[in-house]
Write a structure and sequence with these properties.
The structure is a single chain. By secondary structure, the chain is an alpha/beta fold. The chain contains 17 helices and 13 strands. It folds into three domains: 6-145, N-utilizing Substance Protein B Homolog, Chain A (Orthogonal Bundle); 177-229, Sun protein, domain 3 (Alpha-Beta Plaits), CATH 3.30.70.1170; 234-437, Vaccinia Virus protein VP39 (Rossmann fold, 3-Layer(aba) Sandwich), CATH 3.40.50.
Length: 439
């Protein structure tokens, strides 16, 4: 649309993304991918900042909006509410000058083909500044903690001493971690040879924490397979799984392939690794990841809970089950989880996790190890699933010896398994339980 300033267009595009998450239930990643193809790479960080921030503080921002809107915007114009929230976010949580935040947000209404709302947007944003709504006392726990009530209640129950720390971590921006390909070089060598600022993680022999995020395509050595982007918490899984050896390995629910690549980097190029995922399209991403790293695995598009459809009958020494979960341990990377997930989802997920655990136990050799992993912090998906599994399988036992003493300072011991809470030493939230089959 001619005459629209670039800044207004970018805010309008961000409003469309936020609206599609809030009102259509689309994931933030999917919604961003749909619009970023038409946005210049240099402009994408601003759009992402507006989208992530507006969703990260969604509950507070929507509460503030309700204080200033005399009546809700018509349902068909829900994108205008999202645009107003983006305006609020700029005024309260960024360094964008007030006049620029107001003028560009007002003009964005024209790009959205809703110029009749320009006056309303201008008045509401100026009222927001004049009345200092951003500094007002939150009206309820959702607005205060920027989490839905159901999740606040579960965190209070599961983590009575840590729930506020978890919530605070969830509302922070996550750091960017790299995993250096140990077949090619060490993290120290990578930092020494490349113009990139970061720090090593003591005890985590492949991890680098970057000082600031870098676009993947700009990462030195990424295309050549020298490094991968992977949170340091996720990097704990492969060494734990393989700490006592294991020649034949299954990575279940493998997409997007970060842990598959890590397993192969540890075992070497001639390892016998099978990776499965129920989503054939996402499995293509695993293949692309492995090609970039110069590694190979046997890939199957298959349902981990139905081994009769894909298993050859030859047992595995090691099985990694990175189970589908609520992802409540990675909210700081995916703030849309707070809007898309429902309390009723947790029981269904726990049922699926248990079904996968039961099924994959059958493909594990006697004396073998299965590492159960989630990126959840909820007990029902973690110790609840593992505890019920152990009670039902006489041939199963938990190995509670940490494979590496360096990780003991990261772990919260649970009745079964161990939990890394989000934000601990910069890591995402992950749960681990090492289960071994009696010989």
């Amino acid at each position: 649309m001619s005459g629209i300033k670039p800044g207004a267009r970018l805010r309008a595009e961000a409003a469309k993304v936020v609206d599609s998450v809030v009102n259509e239930g689309r994931s933030l990643d999917t919604a961003l991918a749909a619009i970023e193809v038409n946005i210049q790479p240099a402009d994408r960080p601003l759009v992402r900042m507006l989208c992530y921030g507006s969703l990260r503080f969604h509950f507070r921002l929507r509460s503030q909006l309700r204080q200033l809107l005399e009546r809700p915007v018509k349902a068909r114009d829900g994108v205008i509410e999202s645009l107003l929230v983006i305006g609020f976010f700029q005024l309260s949580d960024t360094r964008v000058p007030d006049h620029a935040a107001v003028s560009m947000t007002v003009e964005a209404a024209r790009y959205l083909r809703r110029p009749k709302y320009a006056g309303l947007i201008n008045a509401v944003l100026r009222n927001f500044v004049r009345r200092k709504i951003a500094a007002s006392e939150p009206v309820d726990d959702e607005a205060r903690f920027n989490h839905p009530h159901w999740l606040i209640d579960r965190l209070r129950k599961d983590w009575p001493n840590d729930w506020q720390k978890i919530i605070e971590a969830n509302n922070e921006r996550a750091p960017m971690w790299l995993r250096v390909n140990r077949q090619r070089l060490t993290p120290a060598e990578y930092l020494e040879k490349n113009d990139i600022e970061g720090e090593l993680a003591p005890g985590r022999d492949q991890a680098i924490r970057l000082a600031a995020p870098v676009a993947v395509e700009e990462l030195p050595g990424f295309a050549e397979g020298l490094v991968s982007v992977q949170d340091c918490g996720a990097q704990l899984a492969a060494p734990w799984l393989l700490s006592d050896g294991g020649d034949r390995v299954l990575d279940a629910c493998a997409a997007p392939g970060g842990k598959t690549g890590h397993i192969l980097e540890i075992l070497g190029p001639h390892a016998d690794v099978t990776a499965i995922d129920a989503d054939a399209e996402r499995l293509k991403g695993v293949q692309q990841n492995l090609e970039r790293l110069g590694l190979n695995a046997t890939l199957y598009a298959a349902d981990a809970s139905k081994p009769e459809e894909w298993w050859t009958g030859q047992g595995f020494d090691r099985v990694l089950l990175d189970a589908p979960c609520s992802a409540t341990g990675v909210i700081r990377r995916h703030p849309d989880i707070k809007l898309l997930r429902r309390d009723s989802d947790i029981r269904a997920l726990a049922s699926l996790q248990r079904a996968m655990l039961d099924a994959l136990w059958s493909v594990l050799k006697p004396g073998g190890r299965l590492l159960y992993v989630t990126c959840s912090v909820l007990a029902e998906e973690n110790e609840g699933v593992v505890g019920s599994f152990l009670a039902a399988h006489a041939d199963a036992r938990e190995n509670r010896v940490l494979h590496d003493y360096n990780i003991s300072d990261l772990m919260c011991e649970r009745t079964t398994g161990f939990q890394v809470l989000p934000g601990t030493q910069g890591l995402d939230g992950f749960y681990f339980a090492a289960l071994e089959k009696r010989s």
